[in-house]
Design brief:
heterodimer, A: 252 residues, alpha/beta, Rossmann fold, 4-stranded antiparallel beta sheet, 10 strands, 24% strand, B: 269 residues, 86% helix
């Protein structure tokens, strides 16, 4: 379904991805974990084609998206939905216009029909009566839900989540985790999430991959990851400052 | 230890050359990226679907909402131009030429340039700030993931609005400026109304007006593409948005003033 092969990406002298490889099966929920600055966001941007690798390839059903023309790439993106870390709602549009954006633009639906679908998608993520509000009138958790409604509105095959629980209180974070699981069950989508929230990773993942120094160093089910013998992964999942991963500015 | 003054001088020259070279490279890089964005915008402008709704919205933002400031600036510019010309020309009994001077100065020069500077300060800053905020809050990335080309969706409507609305605003500024000049010369300074209009129409040529409007078209395109470029490539959060906004106004204003000389030399041979 989705395969990253030997991805390399540098920004100036900063070599962020150093041969990252990952395979996600159809209908699978893959969670990529890794520390801040480990290249998780760069990885997800390669999957959706907003960044092109210096070396390596991203295959969607066997087709390399780096080799696609601009038009083909935009067509391929219609198969994706993405939830951004800070939701990235269009602040000049009402909530329903955000959710119905792709439907009106690509589905060529009339405004009333698109609004009806948007209200239905908002209900799916647990929001009722907010369709006419502006994004600035919503709380952080509500914004994430609207972002999720927008991501699923055009019924994508692949859902990408960029730090879905970051910035939320634990209860709201858990509610978002439940929504992600619900989306997977209801819509049968393939999903890739990047996070450093281990509670969220264990809950939503079929498999977890650890990105470290630009490479995927371990892949396994949540149970396999919990019982890993890899010292780097162990240090990360237990959240210890002491171990092979050195924390900038901390000498211990 | 004393340093040989010759070596010190060579070091100083070397440092200056290096600095100039880096400045030149940075300028060339920025100019290249602006041109690439311009070509990409023109390509997206030609290809369907056309962003009619967005373009109309930008026409209102850039054109209609800039009108009050343009009107006030134009009327007072015409008035002060008439006042200064009248008192100056009176010294050698040439007051009858005030209408001519006001009309020529405004249509050929002040109308397009002042309108350009006002739109750069008002609409250019708004464009850079809006696109910059969209960039740092990942709204432009969100457009990409929703299979929407951000150049087509965000930049092309602003570009079209700039190219259409700058000449439109300039026509109004020209008219209002001349009326302002007339008001001061005739109503406040007591000159003859018939002579004022006769001298205005005797020497004003159609080419003065349309060449001024050609300049306005160019200024509109420059303001839109520079401001969009600054906003579109914003980096570094709120500080970056501030820098992009300032940069858009400064670069647009400089481009207007510098290109004005070359356009005038070319158009008004």
């Amino acid at each position: 379904m989705l395969e990253l092969i030997d991805l390399h990406k540098s920004f100036g002298g900063n070599h962020v991805l150093r041969g990252a490889s990952l395979k996600v099966e159809k209908g699978e929920s893959m969670v990529v974990i890794g520390g801040s600055g480990s290249g998780k966001s760069v990885l997800i941007k390669h999957i959706i084609g907003t960044l092109k690798p210096d070396k390596g390839s991203v295959l969607i059903d066997g087709a390399d998206i780096a080799a696609l023309s601009e038009n083909e790439l935009y067509e391929t993106r219609k198969r994706f939905g993405m939830l951004f870390q800070m939701a990235a709602l269009f602040d000049s549009m009402r909530v329903w216009e955000n959710v119905a954006f792709a439907l009106m633009r690509h589905g060529k639906l009339k405004e009333n029909d698109a609004k009806e679908i948007a209200i239905e998608k908002l209900r799916m993520v647990g929001l009722v009566g907010v369709e006419n509000l502006m994004p600035s009138e919503l709380s952080g958790g509500m914004k994430k839900r609207v972002g999720l409604a927008r991501a699923i509105a055009h019924e994508p095959e692949i859902l990408l989540y960029d730090e879905p629980t970051t910035g939320l209180d634990p209860i709201m974070a858990d509610a978002i985790n439940d929504l992600i699981i619900e989306m997977k069950q209801k819509l049968a989508v393939t999903s890739v999430a990047i996070t450093h929230d281990m509670h969220s990773a264990y809950k939503i993942a079929d498999r977890i991959a650890m990105l470290y120094q630009g490479r995927i160093i371990e892949i396994g089910t949540p149970d396999e990851i919990k019982n890993t013998g890899n010292a780097i992964v162990r240090q990360f999942i237990t959240g210890s400052a002491v171990g092979p991963i050195k924390v900038e500015g901390v000498t211990a | 230890m004393t340093v040989n003054p010759v070596i010190k001088f060579i070091e100083c020259v070397g440092r200056t050359i290096t600095l100039l070279w880096h400045t030149f490279i940075a300028f060339s890089e920025e100019l290249g990226r602006i041109m690439l964005l311009l070509f990409s915008s023109i390509k997206q402008l030609i290809l369907p679907p056309f962003e009619v709704k967005n373009t109309l919205k930008q026409i209102i933002e850039i054109g209609i909402k800039s009108m009050p400031v343009v009107l006030i600036t134009a009327v007072f510019t015409g008035m002060v131009l008439a006042l200064q010309s009248y008192t100056g020309f009176k010294r050698f009994n040439a007051e009858v030429l005030v209408g001519t001077v006001v009309a020529l100065s405004i249509t050929r020069e002040l109308g397009p340039v002042l309108t350009g500077l006002i739109v750069a300060g008002r609409a250019g800053a708004a464009m850079a700030a809006e696109l910059g905020t969209m960039r740092v809050t990942e709204q432009i990335d969100a457009l990409e993931t929703l299979a929407t080309n951000p150049v087509k969706y965000l930049i092309v409507p602003r570009f079209i609005a700039g190219v259409i609305m700058l000449p439109a605003l300039t026509v109004i500024a020209d008219f209002i400026g001349i009326i302002g000049g007339y008001f001061v010369t005739v109503n406040l300074l007591g000159a003859n109304s018939t002579v004022y209009w006769k001298r205005t129409w005797d020497y004003l040529e159609t080419s003065d007006i349309y060449n001024g409007l050609i300049k306005a078209c160019f200024f509109g395109a420059a303001i839109a593409i520079i401001s969009c470029y600054k906003g579109f490539y914003t980096q570094g959060g709120a500080e970056g948005v501030g820098k992009a906004t300032t940069g858009a106004v400064v670069l647009s204003s400089m481009t207007i003033l510098i290109s004005d000389y070359f356009l005038s030399a070319w158009l008004f041979k």
